[in-house]
Write a structure and sequence with these properties.
The complex is a heterodimer of chains A (302) and B (302).
Chain A lengths: L16 H17 L6 H21 L4 H6 L5 H4 L2 H13 L7 H31 L1 H16 L2 H12 L3 H25 L3 H9 L4 H39 L4 H10 L3 H29 L10
Helix pairs in contact in A: 5-13, 6-7, 6-9, 6-11, 6-12, 8-9, 8-11, 9-11, 11-12, 11-13, 12-13
Chain B lengths: L3 E4 L37 E9 L5 E10 L4 E5 L6 H9 L6 E7 L8 E4 L11 H5 L8 H6 L1 H14 L15 H13 L5 E5 L7 H18 L2 E5 L3 H7 L2 E5 L6 E6 L8 H4 L3 H25 L1
Parallel strand pairs in B: 4-8, 4-9, 6-7, 7-8
Antiparallel strand pairs in B: 1-5, 2-3, 2-5, 9-10
The chains are: A mainly alpha (302), B alpha/beta (302).
Chain lengths: 302, 302
């Protein structure tokens, strides 16, 4: 309270120049400390701009005669062009001028999905079992390590010799790849359960099976879902490789045909198709992970 | 006459020296440090001449004697590494003494009759707060689980109300603060109405003001449910505020140095209690004993 006769001090709400400077410096410092992130719309604009730049470069640079003179590989005969690829893709889907692609897509997709499902289920079951029971672990560990160390791609010819160039061979290759990826993650997930959690469950009267089902399986699933995008991508790779090497039906076989005809347009079109399938499969697993692991802070994809 | 359940002492001859000699020489005849209290009530747990050595031969506790009386709160304090948590595990049945015996009332044999709040988080991250509270029910036979559903739900609501988590019933653990998670761990342990509740430094990770608030809440629940509690803590203030008996352990391998009855009564307000002269005098007295053990422990480690 002010004394009688003394005027109350006037408090100005207008910041002084020094205060404004200090405010600016503070905001600058805050921005520096924050993770630099772009808003979604800016991200999309940048992504589209980058894609447009790449496609434009691909489309127009080979038309420059001087450029082709310097680098002969820039000839559309070798590297095709976005417009030719789009044209080929349209023909593939409509069946005009090229073999209809649907049966090839279905064969590859079916082998990938079946291979993934079988590999995931067996990988989870094995990982859960080995992380739960030390006796299984003791006996099976060296065998699993040896099998995992073997390059799976080298086993593809053996699988083709045994099963012939068929859809079954592609599925088996896909299972081999997915199983080991999922199994090791599932195993590590099962081993990552805090011992206190299991002890707590034991005090509550949980049987070994209940502890495995109610607790360990959840940790196994977290680690498994973390590995799924990679597993799916590699499953597709395994299937296509088996199709290329074995000559079975599928998009791998279409690539072989395209190479035989020295058809860069068809080769690139199939590669684009495979990329779309891969992205769709990975997106589906990301979506599934978000749904199943909604309780886990890292569960939802970015 | 109470029926006892003994955690056996079959390994009594295999105790190894804490200082590293790996001889299989039997431990010297135990010298009773604190004879079991002869009270009116029959003890719920009686720890008799208990020693425990880890597989590497390090002795954690030696010749420990004390009783846990029904409806009482017994706190165990002592220097770091004196075997406080080990003792709790032996009482819970999660460990077996190397020599001596832990006699437990037969009523403790049913599932969830003994529950424990661990130092580390044992919450189920994929369950909501309300489902975490009644998590013990997941390990009950299906018939019993269904029959008790309504009563269990009511009890869960009551407990969450008591610790101020009602508003967060549908939240997941990762959405809670540290103090809330500790509260949830506590109600999850008491939801099954255990006869014996073991607390292993349950609030060590919580800041002091939150801890005192939690003390008040849990004290109310413990008294209301008429539970018997054994609390292991490094916080002497916590031990005195909550307990009816405080046991001070010697430096490791720990044994009971002194047993102090705390006579602040059943109804106590933790906040006002800590301001009283009686409390401060007792704190000073016990701190002197504890500080001596801490000093000896430091000398031993140096």
């Amino acid at each position: 309270m002010t004394e009688l006769g003394t005027p109350a001090p006037v408090v100005s709400t207008v910041p002084t120049a020094a205060e404004r400077e200090a405010g600016k410096a503070r905001r600058r410092k805050q921005r520096q400390l924050q993770e630099k992130r772009l808003p979604t719309w800016k991200v999309r604009v940048w992504q589209l701009a980058l894609l447009a730049a790449i496609l434009s470069f691909w489309q127009w640079v080979p038309t420059i005669h001087a450029a082709r003179q310097v680098v002969s590989a820039l000839d559309p005969f070798f590297i095709s062009s976005p417009s030719l690829i789009v044209k080929t893709l349209r023909e593939l889907f409509t069946g005009h001028g090229e073999p209809s692609v649907w049966s090839y897509v279905w064969t590859t997709l079916r082998a990938t999905i079946f291979g993934c499902l079988i590999g995931i289920v067996t990988g989870i079951a094995m990982g859960l079992l080995l992380s739960t029971d030390v006796r299984f672990r003791q006996v099976l560990n060296p065998f699993i390590n040896a099998l995992n160390a073997a390059p799976k791609i080298a086993l593809i010819p053996i699988v083709i010799i045994i099963l012939g160039p068929s859809g079954a061979a592609s599925i088996v290759v896909s299972v081999m790849i997915v199983f080991f990826m999922v199994f090791f993650n599932a195993y590590m997930g099962g081993r990552s359960v805090p011992p206190e959690m299991l002890q707590n469950a034991r005090l509550m009267g949980a049987s070994s099976f209940a502890a495995m089902y109610q607790i360990r399986l959840r940790y196994v699933l977290v680690w498994t879902f973390a590995s799924l995008p990679n597993a799916v991508t590699y499953a597709l790779l395994g299937v296509v490789t088996a199709e290329i090497l074995g000559g079975g039906e599928g998009l791998g076989q279409l690539i072989v045909q395209a190479i035989g005809q020295v058809d860069a347009n068809l080769t690139f079109a199939v590669v684009v198709l495979l990329s779309i399938i891969g992205v769709a499969l990975v997106s589906a697993t990301e979506l599934l992970r978000g749904k199943v692991l909604h309780w886990w802070p890292g569960g939802a994809s970015e | 006459m109470t029926q006892w359940n003994t955690i056996s002492d079959t390994m009594s001859g295999m105790v190894r020296d804490a200082r590293g000699e790996n001889s299989d020489v039997p431990v010297e005849a135990p010298v009773p440090t604190a004879p079991p209290r002869r009270g009116a009530a029959t003890p719920l747990v009686s720890v008799r001449d208990v020693s425990f050595a880890y597989p590497n031969g390090v002795l954690a506790v030696t010749n420990v004697n004390f009783d846990v009386h029904p409806k009482g709160i017994t706190s165990i304090v002592g220097p770091s590494g004196c075997g406080k948590s080990t003792l709790l595990r032996l009482i819970s049945g999660l460990g077996v003494p190397t020599s001596g015996e832990v006699l437990r009332d037969e009523s403790l044999n049913r599932d969830s009759a003994v529950t424990m709040v661990f130092q580390t988080d044992t919450l189920f991250p994929w369950l909501t707060v309300e489902h975490n509270t009644e998590v013990y029910a997941r390990f009950l036979p299906m018939k019993q689980r269904r029959a008790e559903a309504a009563a269990r739900r009511q009890r869960t609501e009551h407990l969450l109300e008591m610790v101020g988590l009602s508003k967060f019933a549908k939240a997941f653990p990762y959405q809670l603060s540290g103090g809330m998670r500790r509260r949830l761990a506590f109600v999850s342990a008491v939801a099954s109405s255990p006869r014996l509740l073991l607390l292993d430094e349950p609030f060590a990770s919580v800041d002091e003001p939150t801890r005192i608030q939690i003390h008040q809440d849990i004290l109310r629940i413990i008294r209301e449910q008429e539970m018997t509690v054994v609390l292991v803590t490094h916080d002497l203030a916590e031990a005195i505020s909550l307990s009816d008996t405080v046991l001070i352990l010697t430096r490791g391998p720990g044994s009971v140095f002194k047993e102090h009855p705390i006579e602040f009564g059943i109804e106590r307000d933790v906040l006002t209690l800590r301001q009283g002269q009686e409390y401060l005098g007792l704190y000073g007295e016990l701190w002197e004993e504890l500080a001596l053990q801490i000093k000896l422990s430091k000398e031993q480690n140096d």
